[in-house]
Specification:
This protein has about 180 residues and is mainly beta. About 10% of the residues lie in helices and about 40% in strands. The chain has a six-stranded antiparallel barrel.
C-alpha cells in the first residue's frame, strides 16, 4: 500500500530553517499544496548573516523528462530525524501513476503527477528532500514509498519538471489553483 506523508509544515505555528553551517532562523510559509506534499517557505534575507549566505549553494535543476531507467539516483533527507542522510539507488521507472492513502485521515486519492520510482531508500524524514542525478542536478522531490512487509526499495519522487509550476503558483498565490469543470 502506498502512503504519502502529511505536509511537514501543515498546522505549524512557527517554522525554523537550519542551514548547513548550523545557523537556525525563523521562516515564513509562502504557500502549501497538501495534495502534492509541497510547500514554499522563505527566510527574510536581512536575517541571514553574510557568512551563512556565503555557505548557501543553489541547486542546479535537471530535466526529469530525460531520465532513463537504470540511471543512478541519490536521495537526500533527514531519515527518521537522525540528521542529514544520503542513500543511493537507480531510477527504477518513470511516469508511474500513484494512488495514495493519507496516514492521518485514511483518505485515498490518485495523483495527477506521474512519479519517478527509485530503489534509493526513501524513509520518514526524507519527504521533501532532493532526488539528484550523478551530475548533482535536482531531478525530483522525494515524496513517498510503498510500506509493506513484502517489498523493499519502492520509493517515489515528484519529477522536478512537474514541481516547478506548483512552486511558481505557491510563490505567486500562496496556493495552487486547479481548474474545475463543475459537472457531476
Amino acid at each position: 500500500m502506498l502512503f504519502r506523508s502529511v505536509t511537514v509544515v501543515e498546522g505549524s505555528e512557527t517554522l525554523t530553517v537550519t542551514f548547513a553551517d548550523g545557523t537556525s532562523l525563523e521562516a515564513d510559509i509562502k504557500g502549501t499544496d497538501p495534495s502534492h506534499d509541497v510547500a514554499v517557505i522563505a527566510v527574510p534575507l536581512d536575517t541571514i548573516s553574510s557568512d551563512t549566505m556565503d555557505a548557501i549553494a543553489v541547486a542546479t535543476l535537471g530535466d526529469s523528462s530525460k531520465l532513463k531507467v537504470g540511471e543512478p539516483a541519490i536521495a537526500i533527507g533527514n531519515a527518521l530525524g537522525y540528521g542529514q542522510s544520503v542513500t543511493t539507488g537507480v531510477i527504477s521507472a518513470t511516469d508511474r501513476e500513484s494512488t495514495t492513502t493519507d496516514t492521518m485521515t485514511g483518505e485515498t486519492s490518485t495523483s495527477d503527477v506521474r512519479l519517478i520510482q527509485t530503489d534509493a531508500a526513501i524513509n520518514p524524514g526524507n519527504s521533501g528532500g532532493p532526488l539528484i542525478n550523478m551530475a548533482g542536478e535536482l531531478i525530483g522531490i522525494n515524496s513517498m514509498k510503498i510500506s509493506d512487509e513484502s517489498v523493499e526499495g519502492f520509493g517515489f519522487a515528484l519529477p522536478i519538471n512537474e514541481v516547478l509550476p506548483i512552486i511558481s503558483q505557491l510563490e505567486r498565490n500562496g496556493k495552487v489553483v486547479r481548474p474545475i469543470l463543475g459537472i457531476s
